[in-house]
Structure to design on (154 residues):
């Protein structure tokens, strides 16, 4: 199998996953950025908007907009920080917690379904290969960005 075949397969997988995710999130009244924020709070607990901005790699203003929308739709709420009166913590509401528990269970089930019928060794090898491909892709993208940045500086 060639690298091009692997790339084409990864692109096809990306397309299927993205289309499915968009359908499911739309059905639930969510977007990808809003869900990503909820996922972080679900797994990490309440967080300040500054912490969320760092974890999402976006501006604090962007997080404010996301949290405003999540509050308006009943998925999250702001509460005063217990020790820093200048800060607020973003919490999940009962609705937000319920949807994240459901999505977490679906995530786990889909992962299991994807490898159904494969033995443990095959799954281990596939994971190692995918991690290698991801690492190489990250390296190649970084090198490409560096070359572009160097070319723009000249």
């Amino acid at each position: 199998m060639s690298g091009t075949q692997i790339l084409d397969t990864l692109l096809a997988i990306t397309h299927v996953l993205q289309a499915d995710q968009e359908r499911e999130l739309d059905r639930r009244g969510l977007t990808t950025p809003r869900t990503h924020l909820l996922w972080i709070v679900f797994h990490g607990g309440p967080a300040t908007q500054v912490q969320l901005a760092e974890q999402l790699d976006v501006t604090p203003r962007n997080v404010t907009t996301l949290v405003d929308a999540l509050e308006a739709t009943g998925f999250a709420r702001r509460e005063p920080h217990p020790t820093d009166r200048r800060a607020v913590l973003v919490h999940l509401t009962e609705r937000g917690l319920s949807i994240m528990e459901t999505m977490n269970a679906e995530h786990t089930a889909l992962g299991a379904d994807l490898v159904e019928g494969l033995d443990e060794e095959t799954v281990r090898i596939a994971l190692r290969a995918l991690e290698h491909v991801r690492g190489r892709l990250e390296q190649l993208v970084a090198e490409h960005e560096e070359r572009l940045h160097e070319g723009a500086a000249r």
Notes: The chain has a mean pLDDT of 94. The radius of gyration is 19 Å. DSSP finds six helices and three strands in the chain.
